[in-house]
Amino acid sequence: MSTTTTPTIKYWWEDLQVGETRDLGSVTPSEEETVAFARQFDPQPFHLDPEAAKASVFGALSASGWHTCAMAMRLMVTNFLCESASLGSPGLESLKWLKPVFPGDTLRLQHTITEKRPMSKRLDVGLVRTTWEMFNQHGDKVLHMEGYGMFRRREPGKP
């Protein structure tokens, strides 16, 4: 018999409002985490070797953009999606890495709802378009993403 419990759903599609902005916390990648992610997923010299990185356009060891996305996703899940009726995402429309992320940077994630609508073929699901922005400790935007999430509706629409 399983002892796990289903989390309480705090946010259904109906609870999410256009214009709503959430601060979803912060994360500070270490050099070890930066290199470990790069070693497994993006083994380019400027993500792996501090000496090689000095000669790169970044001038120092930098996190992979994919690592930055993964850190943003972790903050999103931990501080929002785990309390929501999230059903995943059909994808992104825009992804931009605006500035390099260096080990020791403290990154803060902000999430803004820009649009929402019910799905026409799935009456129990609504789409929510969002902008994700990640800022470093200096207030510089390092990541900008836009895309959709699917959320279960508390009260499914009528056909």
Give a count of the beta strands, DSSP E runs of length 2 or more: 5
Which band does the percent of strand residues land in? Answer: 25-35%
CATH superfamily: Hotdog Thioesterase
CATH class: Alpha Beta
Task: Give me the side-by-side strand order of the main sheet.
Answer: 1-3-4-5-2
Relative helix content: 10-25%
Whole-Å distance between the termini? 39 Å
CATH architecture field: Roll
Q: Mind telling me the C-alpha Rg?
A: 18 Å
What is the overall silhouette? Answer: elongated
Domain module count:
1
Task: Give me the strand/helix succession.
Answer: EHHHHEEEE
The CATH topology is given as Thiol Ester Dehydrase, Chain A
Supply the number of helical segments.
Answer: 4
Structural class: alpha+beta
The biggest sheet, with number of strands, parallel, antiparallel or mixed sense and barrel status, is: 5 strands, antiparallel
Overall pLDDT score: 95
User: Which spans have pLDDT < 50 for at least 5 consecutive residues?
Assistant: none
Describe this protein's structure.
This protein has a five-stranded antiparallel β-sheet, covered by helices on one side. The protein has 159 residues and is of the alpha+beta class. The chain has four helices and five strands, in the order E-H-H-H-H-E-E-E-E. The protein has one domain (13-152): Thiol Ester Dehydrase, Chain A. It has helices at residues 31-41, 45-48, 50-54, 65-79; strands at residues 21-27, 91-97, 107-118, 125-135, 141-152. The mean pLDDT is 95. The longest helix has 15 residues, at 65-79.
What's a concise summary of this model?
With 159 residues, the protein is α+β, with helices and mostly antiparallel strands. It has 4 helices and 5 strands. Strands 1-3-4-5-2 form a 5-stranded antiparallel beta sheet, with helices on one face.
